[in-house]
Give the backbone structure.
Amino acid sequence: MSGGRLLLLAPMAALLAAFLLAIGGLIWGSLVRGGLGFYAELLTDPIVLRVLWRTVWIAAATTLLCVLLGYPLALFLARSRHRNLWLILVISPWLVSIVVRTFGWMVLLGNRGVLNTTLRDLGLIDAPIRLLFTPTAVLIGLTHVFLPFLVIAVLSSLLQQDRRLEEAGRILGGTRWQVFRRVTLPLSLPGVIGGASLALLMATGAIVTPLLLGGLRDRMLGTQIYTEIFQVFNFERATAMAVILLVVALLLVAPLRLLEARIRRAQEAA
Amino acid sequence: MGLSPVTRLIAVLLLVLLPAPLLIVIGASFSPRAVLSFPPNGFSWRWYAEFLGSAAWVTAFGRSALIAVLAAVLTTLISLAAALALDRAPARLRGAVETAILAPLLFPHAAIGIAFLGWLALLHLNGGFAGVLLAHLILCAPFAYRPIAVSLRQIDRSLTEAATILGATPPQAVRLVVLPLLRPGIAAALLFSFIISFDEVTVTMFLVGPEFTTLPVSIYAHIHDSADPVVAAISSILILLTALLVLLIDRLVGLRIFIDIEEEGRHAPA
């Protein structure tokens, strides 16, 4: 590489160095200050374990919901003649700040929110259903936040498919479901897994949505870290939990990434 | 191939539900009463007037806009330089650097926030403008780099060769041929990073301080204490701004860029 090119690359290299330094510093600092004993202590603390478990199941359930709902939507978009219009409806909420979107769900789900008021006016309920500050609300909010990631990933792999493969399946006598299961779905799997791993990663590290919709009782790892820093002022514990969060995210996402790479290689070989 | 009724039903429901919380926020922002309600019982600009009359809110808005503009311009320049430098680099080197540029996407935001807090606190840069800007540059880099890289790859090589044969020096070829053709990619990079920076809250909330905060973090803090309609008014302004930016992306670049970026990511080494 010539000197000129290296010079062009230098600012980006500096940014990357700053990022790596921050992440490296986080891990190093927590090992030096707290040591492994601190982790052992944390990982046997029943409160931390509950938070850890809640984080994993909420993130996994969010991802599953995103796949189950996002796939049909992506399929609809892929086949629609008005795709651009629908894309605006999917992308615009996606790009609005998480705080604003979560606020919208607070207005909808609160005890005196839109949903409860409407149900009461219709005479369907007497007392408000408690939705806000429950894991259900967190699940709804997180799914809303991460669904577009999945839709775009799946849509991209659907649009790449050769439509003649599906037509061939139909001509050869396959039912709609058979063609979907044997042709469309397998070809779009890399998109599904790619989108799912992104949703899983981001849901695991979410802070704002679980804080505002889940309240302070049912904490996830992100909210726990936030509380340790801003309410308990325990930087050591927060750092150690951030490292645990990194490891958990890696353990959750790595198998998906490997699976995605394997499927892609198999498809390219075929 | 036709779609099953279930697929259509899910898709239509989601296309209604995705924008719903945002539309409700906009509706509630016109409420004349001090309690957040939807549908609003009346119509007033009261909460917009309150936002514009509040020095704290307007300052936070101005700061966020300033940071977002700076982050957008700087990240785009840095990414453009890096993309040009890597354009003809050996595939392995380019793959390695691109993986590093996309790295911030692979870490949970809560962990990135803590990592930066620790690092910036050492330099006494936490709670200030510089720290937030640096973090935003790193978070925006993947979103600025990818559209430029996509555009660069779509350029017909023979055009630059023709320019060189006609006597252009390499810098001239870049300035007169490559840069004009990169315009859609550069526009997308600017708009994406502006949106990412302007909306960012999960990492930023760790880096702000008593003297310096951004708009989304102020909104978060405000909702956490009370949910009065002034937040609905500010949120509505943000929703409108985002919608305008999405339309601008559609006009200048085409929403297809979101799908192209997905595809590009798929061919990049994992």
